[in-house]
Each structure stands twice: as structure tokens, then as C-alpha cells.
Specification:
about 190 residues; mainly beta; globular; about 60% strand
């Protein structure tokens, strides 16, 4: 397996964002290695399906399969999304500054065992930005997402999507329940 430790991009995300960027098809078996604080997280790509990335997430808590939908909501661990919501999520693509999508997802709560959970998601492509992370410098398209359950929980996340990589090279999130974090791409391992 090849490991890419540092990457510099030549494509300009600002130009691409003006022309609108589709979700890149990812090669199954590709592993994106992230670091955040003292934590390491790896995402192994299983497949790309429309605007969803099916992946295995591995961190200090173990391995689980999840689905990253439209670079915003993570569906898995008992959470589901309807076909109508999937179609709504897809409306953010191709990525172009100003594009937005509103959709929902739900399932069994991970906070209150036995209770149902549902959330609404608002996602918007807000700008282009060059970011430097451990893996190198990337021109990115920034997608900001807010999620809430309509009562006591809300969260915000930002994805810096690098079209040349086909993945978020940086993610930042926070919720009103105290969860916060930033992860940055450290390396990519090709199959």
C-alpha cells in the first residue's frame, strides 16, 4: 500500500467552485488518516454511493461502519435516512458557493437508550479557502452544517472538502452538549 504523507494541490478550488464540483468517486480501500489533539482516527473507504461515502471508522473506541452523507450528517450506529431526505441532501451537489440543502435523519438515540431520535440538517457551501494541514496545503470548498433535534440538542460542523482528494481534509464540530473537536488529514494510504 502506498502512503501519501504530504500533498500539494495545483487545482484551484475557487475556480472549481465557480464551475461546481461533484463528489469525487473514491477508490475502495483508500484510508484517510486524521489526527485531532492526541487522537488518531482512520476512515477506510468501502464505496462511494451517490452523495454518500460508506466507510469504516477506526479510533480508540473501536471500528464501526458509517455513512457520511453530503459531507454533513453521519448515518450509522442505528441512525437512518429516508430516500426523500437523501434526494434533498444530494441537492447541495455539485458543490458551488451558495448551494444549500435541508434534510433529516433519525433512529435510535445513542444518548437516551430506547428513545427515538430525529434531527434536521441545514448544509451550505459558504466559501473557498486554502488550508494547510499535516498532509499539506489544499484548495478547499467549505461546507457548513447545522443539525438539531428541535428540542435539546444542536450541533455545528464545518468540512473543508478538497476536490483533488475527494474528502474533507479538515473537520471541525461542536454541540451544545459539550462535544467539540478539530481533525486534520495526516496522510492517505492507497490500496
Amino acid at each position: 500500500a502506498a502512503c501519501i504523507a504530504a500533498t500539494t494541490v495545483s487545482a484551484n478550488a475557487a475556480d472549481e467552485a465557480q464551475n461546481a464540483v461533484p463528489l469525487k468517486e473514491l477508490v475502495p480501500g483508500t484510508i484517510f488518516n486524521f489526527v485531532g489533539g492526541n487522537n488518531k482516527i482512520s476512515y477506510k473507504i468501502i464505496k462511494t454511493e451517490g452523495v454518500s461515502i460508506i466507510q469504516e471508522r477506526e479510533n480508540s473506541q473501536g471500528v464501526r461502519t458509517e455513512e457520511l452523507v453530503a459531507l454533513g450528517a453521519t448515518v450509522g450506529n442505528g441512525l437512518e435516512m429516508s430516500q426523500n431526505d437523501r434526494a434533498e441532501a444530494a441537492s447541495i451537489f455539485p458543490l458551488k458557493v451558495g448551494n444549500s440543502a435541508s434534510y433529516g435523519y433519525g433512529g435510535m438515540s445513542t444518548v437516551n437508550p430506547g428513545a427515538r431520535f430525529s434531527a434536521t440538517v441545514q448544509a451550505k457551501v459558504v466559501e473557498t479557502e486554502n488550508v494547510t494541514v499535516k498532509a499539506g496545503a489544499f484548495d478547499t470548498i467549505v461546507v457548513r452544517t447545522t443539525m438539531n433535534d428541535g428540542s435539546f440538542w444542536y450541533g455545528r460542523s464545518t468540512c473543508w472538502y478538497a476536490p483533488t482528494v475527494g474528502y474533507c481534509v479538515k473537520r471541525q464540530w461542536e454541540s451544545n452538549r459539550g462535544s467539540t473537536g478539530i481533525t486534520e488529514l495526516e496522510s492517505i494510504t492507497l490500496p
